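Per-record layout

source: Kineococcus glutinatus
name: Iron ABC transporter permease
length: 346
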Amino acid sequence: MTATAPTTAGAAVVRRPRRVRVLWLLVVLVVLAGLTAASVAVGSRVVTWSDVLAGLGGSTDTLAEAAVAVRVPRTVLALSVGAALAVSGAVMQGVTRNPLADPGVLGVNSGASLAVVVAIAWFGMTSATGRTWVAIAGAAVAAVFVHTVGSLGRGGATPLKLALAGAATSAALASFITAVSLPRGDIAESVRSWQIGGVGGATFGRTAQVAPFLVVGFLVCAASARALNSLALGDELAAGLGERVAVVRAAGAAGAVVLAGAATAVAGPIGFVGLVVPHVCRLLVGVDHRWLLPFSALAGAGLLTAADVLGRVVARPDEIDVGIITALVGAPFFIAIVRRQKVRAL
């Protein structure tokens, strides 16, 4: 049997039985394994499975084996960034009780992007670790600014007001990014390419430098999972259950900002992953964040990997960056959520 629980919107949400969740977990793992294999095998150059095995072993004697050796770190980066953005979006939605929350929609990615561009253009920063710290700081400032602006006026920080504030902030920050990079011909082209969002040119060295930040972000978000379930009942009930609401919100938001900032620093501002994935995962496993967050991580990794594979296939021998693919998928999804009648709360 399945049980139901009230949501803040007053509707009943089905609690998925454990066996259903486990079944979906197996399905997601199988799909993710297939997408990972496809990411290594598929590209502008056709490779055989013997080439894949040789490339995984470190051999670069042939062009096919060299191609595999390049695709492996690219796949690892796509998995990591997709998981980070999806978990960040799920936590942001839980912290704000806002179904429109997403690092891209709320301007967090844009804040991280501007901070990185300023650090490169004005301070000559090239270290991946330094850029990550700067991106996290920029993401945090943007998040606080958008929430402050969205909280003004009657009704406080409603989902639509936050989305509008985020969209306006993103547009303004994009203009600032152009103003900073345009006079610098030596970095303008690379900044424009990076702004699209992609995982091309990934190396294990770059991924390793950002990995500690991702691990910390995942751990903080995971530690907030149980408290996020209480927040979904409302601040008063959460406080009555013994939760320190302000501390929970601050900790969850910090974990989400770290994940979004680190992902943006290494792959550019990739949008809509944190919006689409948590909503789909709720349909599969329910609203319990102890299940939702790991499922979002797996599904986000799969979505970004699938987008990367698709981008390599549809425009051979050229490629379409994953940021464009996710925008094509996420923009209609965002419009559909906005058009829903009960958009004020999860």
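summary: Residues 72-339 form a domain with the ABC transporter involved in vitamin B12 uptake, BtuC fold (CATH 1.10.3470.10). DSSP finds 14 helices and two strands in the chain.
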